[in-house]
Amino acid sequence: MNNSNRKRREFILKLANTLGFLGGVLISPQLLANSSGSAPAHLLSIKLKGKEERNKQQLVFEFDGIVKRSVFSLHTPERVVLDLKNTTLKTKLIRPTGKSSLLQGIRHAIRNDNDLRIVFDLAKKADVSTKLHKTSKGYRLEVTLAGDASVKQSNKKSSTSSRNSATKKASAQKDKKPKLARKENKRRSNHFVVAIDPGHGGKDPGAVGRKGTLEKDVVLKIAHRLKNRINQQGDMKAVLTREGDYYVSLRKRMQKARAEGADLFISIHADANPNRSLTGSSVYILSNRGASSEAARWLARSENSYEAKLGGVTLKRKNKVLSELLLDLSQSATIDNSLGLAENVLKELGGVNRLLRKQVESASFVVLKSPDIPSMLVETAFISNPKEERRLKTSYYQRKLANAMFHGIRRYHLAHKKNSSQFA
Question: What's the structural domain count of the chain?
Answer without folding.
Answer: 2
